[in-house]
Structures are given as C-alpha cells and as structure tokens.
Design a protein that fits this description.
Rossmann fold; 9 strands; alpha/beta; 14 helices; about 15% strand; seven-stranded mixed beta sheet; 2 domains; two-stranded antiparallel ribbon; Catalytic domain of cyclic nucleotide phosphodiesterase 4b2b; single chain
C-alpha cells in the first residue's frame, strides 16, 4: 500500500473514532480492512471522485451532520451510514448504474468480512439514495445525500476547485472536450434535481433569517461560478411560486444574461416547471422550499429581481416585505403576478397548473381591496409601486422598486 493510501485510511480511522451513535468498542481491525477494501474500489487518478479526495474530505462533514442529528433525537443507524459513505462512489465510471454497482460492491465486501445480513442489506439500500432523483425516505439516506452534496453549499474556494475537477472528470468519462458553459448548464440541471428534495434533518440547516443555509450558500456559489465562466455579470432573478406558471416562460428571458432560481413547496409542480424552463434559461435552478417567501434562501442585497407568482391569494402569509427588502439590491425590482381567468376575472383555484378550474368572478371593488392589501404590505419599507392589469391575459402585475 502506498504511503498516501495509508494516510487516507488512517484519517478514516480517526473519523470513525469520532463518529457519534456507533456502539463501542468496535472491531477496529475488521473496520480497517473494510476501509482498505472501500479504498481499492476508487480510481486514484479521478480528479474528484477518488478516496483521498471526495470520500475522506466528506468524513468530517459526516461526523458533524450525524452528530447534529443524534443530538436532536433523530434515530439514525450511524454505522450503516458510515459504511454507505465509504462505498457510495466505488467503481464510478459515469454510467447510469454507478450507484447500483457501488451498492453491490459494498454488499460483497461487507459479507466477506462477516457483517450481519441485516446490516449489509441496509447499507446496500442506502447507497442508491445518492443517485439524483432517487427518493430519500430514511434518516440514513437523507444524511448520505446531505453529505454527498455538502460542498455545493460550502466555502466558495473548495466549491470552485471541485467544480473544475468535476468538469475534467466529465470530459474523461465522455471521451470528448466539454465547453465550460455546456458543463455549467448540465450541472445546473443536475443540481436542481438534487436541491429539489428536502434534506434538512436538524435546525442547524437554517441560517439567521430562518431559510436554508445550505441553499443560500449553494445559490451564491453557483451564481459566482456562472458569472466567472460567462465573463459577465448575470442578472440574478429569484421567483417564489415557480411551480405555478414560471414567469420565465412568458417573459422571453432566454435572451437575457440571466441566472434564475425558483422555489416552490409543491414538488410535483416544481419538477414540471423545472423541465419546462431549461430551454429558456440555461442557468436555471429550482428547489423545494417549505418556508416559501417568509424566509428567502438568498444572501442580503443579492437579487436584481424577485418575482411572486400566484402566491398572494393562495398563500397570503407567504409574502414578507421585510424579506423582500433584505434580499433585493438597491434599485432592484419586485413583481407580484396573480393570474385570473381572462373572462370574468375569476381566480384560478385548486391546482396551479389547471387553468380550467375557475373561482367565482370578482368585482372591481374586490380587486381594489386586494390591491390595497398588497400596497399595505409593501408601503412601510421604502418601495415605490405601480400596478398594471393585463386584462387580455388575465394577469395582474404589481411592480415595486427598492429605493
């Protein structure tokens, strides 16, 4: 074994010793053999997915996340999660069945070293949760997914290094040169599917604004790398309620140098909107956000534009003018867009995506009450606003600016 390999295994031993929730004492000799077997499943020449890089660097994150979950009373099998972490990217070659091959490799190794069948099968069942789009329905799967993507929401320096390492690796797997802008667009598609699943196990996932610290940092990192690759300052647009009918589809935004992030608490509608929007904005991210508009996952003074789509009537408490004021840049624009049936001005009700469902028609005086309520929400925070009603499409827009 090379000296570097011994160092990596030793670092893994130290991480295991700190892992919360694992019954001690362990058979350390057997655990060391498992670590060595896992290490042998990784190609040391891969720029990112090698044992000494991705796996060992994830171990400190694993100790922190699992420790936080255990301290909050989450029942989690730390030993199974640990073994799943060791093997989850073994035999990786950029193929659709990579996760299944890794799970089978873990099963063979753990059976060889005499672990109980129940433990072996549990580990093999956790590993496929790292496949984008897979359901995460247990604490062990959730924590492995969180560990696997943690660097996306970490400090920018390591994030940038990992991004370029993954770009190099993707070119190696596909056997061709991939332009950076093409790879960035592909990465955004993958990340949107990864970020669309709730992986918040404990309160530690949230920042001082009550929104997801992970997503806030992830969007900031991806925005910075997007601006660097495109060599221009992109317009950063956020949309609350993107599953309703993304304004990006109606605004012709595909010609703009745009970086777009949509959030929605409706996972089904969200995924529909996600795939529809790719052709219009390559730098497009969408994700599941249970907090909706009361705790926006953006840094202060980050956005050039913020849109609320079909949220005021269905979720009247989802709009926080204080949060809007926090995330918008000076001179930034916020838009509230509510959709009515084109004839009779009845509200859409029920499914956001079903325009055939009509609510009762409203009168002009009722519309004025709604407008007055919206104005009262934005008035105290130094915004100027100008409503306009597009009767031919049945859309009401209220635009206001951060002054």
């Amino acid at each position: 074994m090379r000296i570097s390999d011994r160092i990596h295994v030793k670092r893994a031993e130290l991480a295991l010793a700190r892992m919360p929730g694992i019954r001690k004492p362990l058979d350390l000799r057997k655990e060391r053999r498992v670590m060595e077997a896992a290490r042998e499943g990784y190609d040391p020449e891969l720029p990112y997915h090698n044992f000494g890089g991705h796996i060992v660097s994830s171990m400190g994150i694993a100790v922190s996340l699992i420790g936080g979950a255990v301290s909050c009373g989450v029942k989690i099998d730390s030993h199974a999660a640990w073994h799943a972490l060791l093997f989850h990217d073994a035999l990786l070659r950029g193929n659709p069945d990579d996760e299944l091959r890794a799970a089978e490799y873990a099963r063979d190794c753990l059976e060889h070293f005499g672990y109980p069948e129940e433990h072996v099968e549990k580990v093999a069942g956790i590993i496929p949760a790292t496949k984008i789009g897979k359901k995460v329905d247990t604490p062990e799967k959730m924590v492995l997914r969180a560990i696997d993507v943690a660097n996306i929401g970490g400090p920018y320096g390591p994030f940038e290094r990992n991004f370029f390492a993954l770009h190099e690796e993707a070119q190696e797997f596909r056997g061709r040169r991939i332009p950076l802008e093409e790879f960035l667009g592909q990465a955004c598609r993958i990340l949107s599917r990864a970020l669309s699943i709730n992986i918040h196990l404990t309160p530690a996932f949230y920042n001082q604004w009550g929104s997801s610290a992970f997503h806030t940092n992830a969007f900031s990192n991806i925005y910075r790398i997007s601006c660097r690759i495109q060599e221009r300052r992109l317009r950063f647009v956020g949309e609350v309620g993107c599953g309703a009918n993304p304004t990006i589809l109606r605004s012709g935004a595909g010609d703009e140098p745009l970086f777009y992030v949509g959030i929605d608490p409706n996972e089904g509608a969200l995924m529909d909107a996600l795939f529809l929007s790719y052709s219009r904005a390559p730098m497009h991210l969408s994700f599941f956000a249970p907090a909706y508009g009361n705790a926006l996952p953006f840094n202060s003074n980050a956005l050039h534009e913020l849109r609320f789509v079909n949220t005021m009537l269905h979720h009247p408490d989802s709009f926080s003018s204080k949060e809007v004021a926090r995330v918008l840049k000076r001179g930034g624009i916020a838009t509230i867009a509510e959709t009515y049936t084109p004839l009779g001005y009845g509200f859409y009700d029920g499914s956001y995506l079903d325009g055939n469902q009509r609510g009762k028609p409203i009168e002009e005086r009722e519309l004025e009450i709604i407008l007055r309520d919206v104005r009262s929400k934005i008035g105290p925070f130094g915004f100027s606003e100008g409503p306009r009603f597009m009767a031919e499409r049945g859309d009401l827009f209220l635009c206001f600016f951060k002054t």
